[in-house]
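Progress narrative, work stream C.
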Amino acid sequence: MRKALGTHVLVEMFGCEPSTLTNKEYVGRALVRAAREANAHVVASYFHQFEPFGVSGAVIIEESHFTIHTWPEHGFAAVDLFYCSEDVDAERAVEILVEMFKPSNIVTFEVKRGVLPELNIETFVKHDERFSHEKIELPETVLVG
């Protein structure tokens, strides 16, 4: 396994029990529990209830963050598990989310973030001629530092 600064797991949860996706307290408990049982260290959390339905929320962890957005009317939840520690067990987090939201199907994607240059990024990125690799000049108002 090559070294990266972080790992970003995207979880698409289809066919969830709609009642599990509608209440911000329930969604919050589920995501906080997933973080804790994945060995992440919870710093803070915030969840927002949309009208007529749906919840978005974030759990800030010392290792980065877990977020969720729900669409009860479609039985769908999108979850991001972003962490910067090998101690975080994303598979356990997904197990908890499956238990809590009861999806009929899930799809996960894993993206390595901040792949260090000394590890030869060409092994991680397939070259695609449609995208330019040229330096882009930004306006001064956007430049940092």
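Work stream C, second folded protein:
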Amino acid sequence: MRFLLIGVIFLAGSFAPATAQTLLSDASLRTAFSGKTHISFYRRYVEGYGGVYFEETYHADKTLTYISGDVSAGGQWGVEGDVICFNYTAPFMVSACFKVVHQNGCFYSYEIGPTGAVLGLETGEWWIRSYIKGTDPACAQEGLIS
């Protein structure tokens, strides 16, 4: 009977979706961002931000460096609970906070709206997709989503 139960548990686990999502916690966010550079992609083109692709380095001292085409900016980043926030020094860039899902080596950021709601999480409409520079996850090959 013990072997049957183990077999049933194993089989049930084998049918779990291959693309299971993990909403990152406080510690996981710090590990995923602190001291790392992310290659990032806006879901849609943002006027004035330099393009849809950008590179952002999250320094251990909580400062950040944003580069996209000929546009660059500094700023700060921080984590509180399971939310990561960014505040930029460039006046044209908007500060924002996100919940982040990690899936298959890629990070999908869902913006926190003015009411505190997580925008697009239930529909999968992320705002920014990124991966750590030097890795090569599947999302690195995916293109713009309209």
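The chain has one domain: 19-141. No further action is required on this item.
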